[in-house]
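Intended use. Records like the one below are meant for learning the mapping from a protein sequence to its folded structure. Do not use them to infer anything beyond what is encoded.
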Amino acid sequence: MLDKSSTHRLIGAGIMLVAAAALLPVILDGERPPELDQIIKVSKAPVIPEVVIKPVQPLPSVDKHVEFKKLEKAKDVEIAKGVDTKSNEPASKPVKPAKQEEKQVKAPVVVKKLEKTSKKAKWTLQIASFKSRENANALVKKLQAANYPAYTITTKTLFKVYVGPEIKRSRSESLKQEIKKKFSLDGFIVKYSAN
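Structure written out for the chain above:
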């Protein structure tokens, strides 16, 4: 014999079948909505001409120095004739020959680039971490005054003080011992990251 819960389930399934048999013919009566009866007339598809793409051809090699010299000569001739090279119109004032202009050109401004650390630099010494930027900057100034290459890196919440970077780990080890003696700071050596 079936237990009580199984009997209830069978009765529920029977009621669902009777309800489906009564309601499905009403729902699926076969009538189409009038919006679906409209037929959209489509004209013929447009004819799109086929485009043939030619393969890429290599450019002829040109000696850059020869072309540059030709351009310089052409420019010198235009300057000597008094033609403005930008607009190809006669210049309002006669232009001096190019050789005289070269003498009047000022010496180029030399921009001194910041020294980049060697790409071989691998090790740096982390001295301390601070929550306060002022404390980190004070330690960096103190280390730099003692001729150590100190710098800070800011993370989300900390200001870390480093000395380095050094190519050889042994040099970082010796820096660690020197700083421990002079400043009583015990750091640790980490791999250098340029970020």
